Fold Peptide hydrolase.
Amino acid sequence: MILNPATPVALLAILRASDVRPNIPLCLANNFYGIFGQQSVFKIPDSSCFELLPNTVDEGSVVPLYLPEDGPQQLVWIRESSIHDSLRTPEYEAEVADFVDWLLSEKHIAYPDGQTVLFNGEKSGPVSLVYRTANSGVVAVADQGAAHILSTRLPRFWKASPIPALPVSYLPVPDAAIERVRDLLVSLRFDALVAGIVNGISVEQMRKDIRYLTNEDGTSGIASRHSFHHGSRVAGEWLKTQFEDAGAKCRFMPFLEGFAPNVICRYDAKTESPDTVLISGHYDSRGSFGMERAPGGNDDGSGTISILNIARRIKQTGITFRRNVELVAFAGEEQGLLGSRAYARELRGRGANITLMIQADMLAYHAPDEPPQLGYPQSIGTPEVAQLVVNISAIYSPELTVGSTTVCCSDHQSFHEQGFPATQLFERVGPIADPMYHNSGDLSDRPGYDLNQVRSICKVQFATLLHAAGFDLPEGVNVEDLEKLD
Ligand SMILES: *[C@@H]1O[C@H](CO)[C@@H](O)[C@H](O)[C@H]1NC(C)=O
Ligand SMILES: *[C@@H]1O[C@H](CO)[C@@H](O)[C@H](O)[C@H]1NC(C)=O
Ligand SMILES: [Zn+2]
């Protein structure tokens, strides 16, 4: 490979996550811009650093970037989510073709080789494609307005994530933190109390909650939970009240002008503990292009009702925890994990000790002829946390068929990036198959939307929390009483 660092403005190394952890040269570690899709992005500062790249890195991984000196410098990573072939309808393919045409039109793009499309250095538009592969790309945008236009133009199964202007810390999960998760894994045994607690999760209550969030019951009036929409504020207020009624202490965490805030709720450990176990979902949603309605019944109303019903059951049973417990409903997930990035950074900044973090995103859908399932992420996250979830699933929700998914990059990624042990729970083994993904028809009352599956996965999230945080029943309550507490 011939590289002349004097020509392009920057060299972007786009490396598979598995190529780089844990051993990368310091010159790369100091020029890390985050994880996008299944890949880590670095800028290569000079040719001596280039020489130090691990030899597992293949040639196509290093991409010269040509940015106009006086043109847009803010980079946005765009990519297609991992989707099942059944979702590649002619309408969708046409949407993608339109989008690519739009990106290429009047944007002064050169085609130096077959696959990669690079800006050629001439005068640029406010939105310029600077790098492209079959299902991802990097776009330079002039300002927030241009970023907003880009996000409204994206095909439905595509996502955009801003690449930060300055490098971010490269923080692998410390060995000691992984060791703590391993300890939980090897000491894991069936616990009748845990079973009694998680079995009290109610499908009927979940149905009520999801019908409220989607306004299928006609009482909330929430048309959309898009982070910019008024409905997301209504949903945020309602969630905060529900969690508080369940005995948690909650606060709003605003993170960016114009966005609905994160809802951060907490049960303090009964006696002071430095450690926190965190479970989450995202309550913002996205609808079809050009339509206001964004009910997000599956994405991610399902993960939101999972953590909400865990809180309800904590209240019913009166349990207390030995470690601190946080339940977080994030916003801004659909615009590039913005809410969770802000919160994970805040936690890192205060030196928080997160034992583990488990994000629930899209729990409800499987094809009508498929069994209930649980997918864990193939690449992003801590494998030991995923293994813990798998083993807990076998004990408390044996009805689930468990396997890995290529779907990636929900809010657990923000915690992974800050060096916290984390994983995601997903509805399927394999890619996204929900025909209502990012669609205004993402309601709970439809074929394939399975609240029993949501309950089964919720039990896994809850049981993992109970095993990781440790808990006590109120005095005088024993395992037989748990069944009556609902
Ligand atoms: C997890 O479960 C598998 C399958 O039951 C088992 O073989 C493995 O030993 C378990 N892992 C640990 C660390 O206990
Ligand atoms: C994290 O744990 C360490 C060691 O137990 C402790 O010194 C520190 O105060 C903890 N951090 C927080 C924010 O509780
Ligand atoms: Zn989602």
The pocket of zinc ion (ligand 3) is lined by residues 282, 299-300, 333, 361-362, 410 (CB under 6 Å).
